[in-house]
Each structure stands twice: as C-alpha cells, then as structure tokens.
Amino acid sequence: MRSLFVLAVVGLLAQLVDGSLGMAYGVTSTTLLLTVGVAPALASASVHIAEVGTTFVSGLSHWRFGNVDWSKILWMAIPGGIGAFFGAIAVSYVAAELAEPFVAVFLFALGAYILARFSFRRREKPVRVKAIPGKFLGPLGLFAGFMDAAGGGGWGPISTPTLLSSGRMEPRKVVGTVDTSEFVVAFAASVGFLLALSLSEIPWGITGALLVGGVIAAPIAAWVVRILPMRILGTAVGGVILLTNMRTFINTIGIEGAAAYVIYGAIVVVWISALAFSILVNNEEKVDVGEGQTA
Questions:
Q1: What is the CA radius of gyration of the chain?
Q2: What is the Cα–Cα distance from 145 to 182, expressed in whole angstroms?
Q3: Contact between 117 and 167 (Cβ < 8 Å)
Q4: Distance CA 128, CA 167 (A)
C-alpha cells in the first residue's frame, strides 16, 4: 500500500512538471518503474495507459485556461497517434535505446538555444506568432509519437522544444497544445500495448496509482502555465530540456567522472542565472509597458 502511495505522489509530481512545462511525465514515471525492476514494455504500457486519463484531464484544463492552439492539434495528434501505435508494437522487438544518444544531442542543442532565446535576448521579443505548416507538424508528431511509445517517453521532450525553438508560438500555447494532443498519442499507444501484451501482464495497481496522482495535478499545472510570463516559462522549459538530456549527451561525447559532474554543476548554475535574468528582464518590460500606457 505504501509503495502505491509513493507511486501516486510520483505521478502527481511528474504531471505537475509535464503539465506546466510540456514534458517529463513519461520520462520520470518510466525511469522510476525501470529502476524498481519493471520490464521496459510493461513500464511503458503502465505509463501510457495512465496517461490516457491524465492527458484527458490535462487537455480539458489547458482548454479551460486558454492554453491550446486548436489549429495545430490534428496536425500533430493524428500522426503522433500512428507513430505511438507502431512504437508500442515495436518496443517488444526493437531497441529504441539505439536512437537515444542522437536524440539527446539534438534536444540538448535545442535546450541551449531556447535558454538563450527566452532569457538572454534583452529588449527583443522571443516569439513572433506565425503559422507553422502541417508538413512540419506531421513528421514531428509521427517521430515524437513513435519515440514516446518505444522509449517510454518522448512526446513532450521532442515536441515541446522543437516548437519552442521555432519562435512562432507562445510557450503556454506550446505546452497546452502538446499536452492536449498527447491524449491521442497515449490512447493509440495503449491500444498497441494491449494488442501486443496480455492483459494479465499489465501492472494495474501501478497504473492506477500513477493515474490518480496525475489527475489531481493536471488542473494545477494548467493554471501555472496560464499565469507564468512568457520569458520565464520559456527559460524554465529550456533548463529542463538541458537537465533531462545532459547525462545521455555527456556520455555520448565520452566525458566521465569528475569532469561530468563539473559540467552538470555548470549547467545548473547557468540555468539558475538564466531564470534570474529572465525575471529581471520581464520586470523591466512590465515597467516599460506601464510607463508607455501612462504617457
């Protein structure tokens, strides 16, 4: 009973991060399950079945707070669902880990770019809202959906930084749109897992605990996205992208031991400095707007 309570708390915390930053529910939950000895396919299945409920509540909450760009939902959700279905089937036969180093390097670079864009560009708007073509959104959704199901997490970590780096969507719209479209991805992946696995193999207690925690956190996270200023939210997302991908990135380029810890520490310091600077710039912009209105 205690272990299920702990899992519910993990689900709550993971959804708070995922719902407010557009990523990390699948990665956090799957990593925990793998750590305690759950097989990769079963861990991913449990997380995705739980996500059917959490993403539904999260989508409703983001819609309620005006965080969703509905013009992009179908372009991402349908290819994402297709990719997730086949990813769920493939996870029993294909080692998705083979692609992880390449994806981590790409996402690490995007994280650094997003951090610079939203925190260190003083007196310049980090976002200019423009249309994003379906021929870009479709392949993005397909790849992110496949990696999400096959790797136990990837929809948010791939979709959110890619859309943010385009500079064509507000951060809250990116987070809300990615989280809302994830319902289709989670549902399709769950169908694939249920076809590939026996119902008796699914750890339903674990799934239920993750679901309960995630459902409680979803409305809170959507509200946080609604009230956080654009610069601060974008900087927070950029830092999380760096932190979640730095271990794989550092291992890929062959750095180990003390040097790796130095890099970890440096990244944390840079992120904290970037957050502080983005808060400073945001406050200055608010003052400028207030003075402009007074004049």
A1: 19
A2: 9
A3: yes
A4: 6
To which H or E segment does residue 4 belong? helix 2-21
pLDDT digits over 152-211, tens only? 667 888 898 889 888 888 888 998 999 999 999 999 988 888 887 777 777 788 888 888
Residue 174: both structure tokens together: 């990116």
- Contact (CB, 8 A) for 240 and 23: yes
Q: Which amino acid is at 247?
A: R
Please report where in the chains the tokens 């809302």 appear, as a residue: 180
Q: Are 8 and 213 in contact (CB under 8 A)?
A: yes
* Euclidean distance between CA atoms 16 and 19, whole angstroms: 5
Q: Which two tokens stand for residue 67?
A: 């965080």
CA distances from 197 to 39, 51, 92, 194, 294 (A): 12, 18, 9, 5, 64
Question: Measured in Å, how far apart are the chain's first and last C-alpha atoms?
Answer: 62
What are the backbone dihedrals phi and psi of residue 263, each rounded to the nearest 5 degrees, phi first? -65, -45
Query: How big is the chain, counted in residues?
Result: 295
Q: Which amino acid is at 110?
A: L
Does the global pTM surpass 0.90?
no
The SS3 assignment for 123 reads coil
Work out the pLDDT band at 228, boundaries 50, 70, 90: confident
Tokens 């180990």 sit at which residue? 256
